[in-house]
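Q: How would the structure tokens look for this protein?
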Amino acid sequence: MAKMPLRWKLLGLLLLALLLPWLPLGSSTNYVLRVVTTAFLYMILALGLNFVPGFTGLLDLGYVGFYGIGAYTAGLLTIHFDLSFWVILPLAALNGALWGILLGAPTLRLTGDYFAIVTFGFSELVVLVLRNELWLTRGPMGLPGIAPPVIFGHPLRLEWEFYYLVILLLMIVLLVVTRLEDSRLGRAWFAIREDEIAAQCCGINLIRYKIIAFAISASIGAMGGAFFARWFKFIHPDMFKFWESILILCLIVFGGMGSIAGTMLGALVLIPLAEILRAILPQGMFSARYLIYGLILVLMMRWRPAGLIPFERAQENKATRIRQRLTLPGGQE
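A: Here is the predicted structure in token form.
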């Protein structure tokens, strides 16, 4: 039997997603749509973060900082200037990219644990600013009363309306990510991930390409934050704590580091799992879900370290090295 092309599989999944609001789910329709909308939002965030650890091999523990910057950018511009969602979205992405460059330019010369510590410090600094700068963010009081997006004069209020909006944003992000993966930029990022010294010897400017990856990653995270603010209509500093960065990183590791399809699958599995655990775990123990996530990751590292859907380019490189080894006399390198 002939194997179905990937594009037809994706088209079928998209058709199923578009039909979901009209399936006979009864009184749980809004709840299901809210959970799936959350999963799609985390797909966007995971695809954005994937540029840094997945494509360039850098461990970023501060991604939630850009998520919070995008959310507060959208909230403040909506409350004080009443700008359209379609104006705020690119402004939030640009603001996220700017902070990504400001953070990346002085720190991307670091590697390994040192870079991870700096990004962690950035996310904590963002939360401290959001919590303490009352004149700007209202601090612990949060930002209430954020108006929903308006499309053709119609304000979005129903769950299925936000559901279709997040699908639209996900399709845009997916198009950008897939195009960049196959571009000259993508090849340079993968070369840096595999071997920085070899990439530099080939003429790749490590700092420049890392900053570009960091800026694109930050802009997508900020765009996800802008959608979250206009969807939830209320934001608070506690929504952007360090554990959110860990959760998004877990989605990438679980699905497959560097794999676009794996990243999306990781979000589609682990985010609804949180709702299942909310129903199973005793009241007051919902935070124990992080222990369960950790156990899942430990088992994945033991039995399937490449993730649910391994990164194809890495698999191809491994197969090429094996073939080259077999062609040498005596099978020696």
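The first helix runs from residue 6 to 19.

The radius of gyration is 21 Å.

Upvote if useful.
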